Amino acid sequence: AFFVYGPQTTLYLTLGEGTDLYRMDPISGLFMLIEERIEIAEETSEYAINASNARQWFTPIQRYVSDLLLGDEGPRERNFNMRWIGSLVADAGRIFNRGGVFLYPGDRRPKYDNGRLRLIYEANPVAFLVEQAGGAATDGVTRILEKTPTEIHERTALIFGSKTEVRWVGSYEAETRQGLDQSPLFSHRNLFRS
To answer: Is 169 exposed, middle or buried (CB count within 10 Å of its CB: 0-12, 13-18, 19+)?
Structure first.
């Protein structure tokens, strides 16, 4: 579960059978069910990433975001909008309501190569809620809920939201691991990418 505080206080909650949205009634102070079993849209044209770190990202994330920025003239052949609130919970709330993909990747800065968010008490709760709403959550390669922590404050990269975009990020990671992003036949505007 997590709360979003603002003009209204909302609660996103799962007990393992879908994610429900509650809003606090300002008069009674009680949480009222607003939407049962939220579904995150499988497709999206919105992404959230802290672009100020772009020069520090690893190649797969740089390539992925570059392709999104090319819009309908690029390999994805459609336009994307960037949204970045800068708060994991607020960005997650927006994705539950509108769809989208959130990226907080590892990067080249010291101590950030595995990401910045804590696996146990930041990434796991969000990943559970997202998956219960039909979305996906990975570190770019591995499903977040399949990662076994080795320490309490272990950090991880986190990519979550609409399944299709989470899969796209994974495909960029796979191409880089296989060296396909370096080949003229498989690189940025290649013959085989649709």
So the answer is: buried
**Domain covering 46-182 in this structure, CATH number:** 3.40.190.80
**pLDDT for 183:** 54
Q: Which residues contact 179 (CB under 8 A, 6 or more apart)?
A: none
- The SS3 assignment for 84 reads coil
- 101, 160 Cβ separation under 8 angstroms: yes
Q: Break the chain into its structural domains and give their ranges.
A: 2-35, 46-182
Q: State how far Cα 89 lies from the chain centre.
A: 11
Burial of 183: CB neighbours in 10 Å, binned 0-12, 13-18, 19+: exposed
| pLDDT of amino acid 182 | 65
Global pTM reads 0.91
Cβ contact 131:156 at 8 Å = no
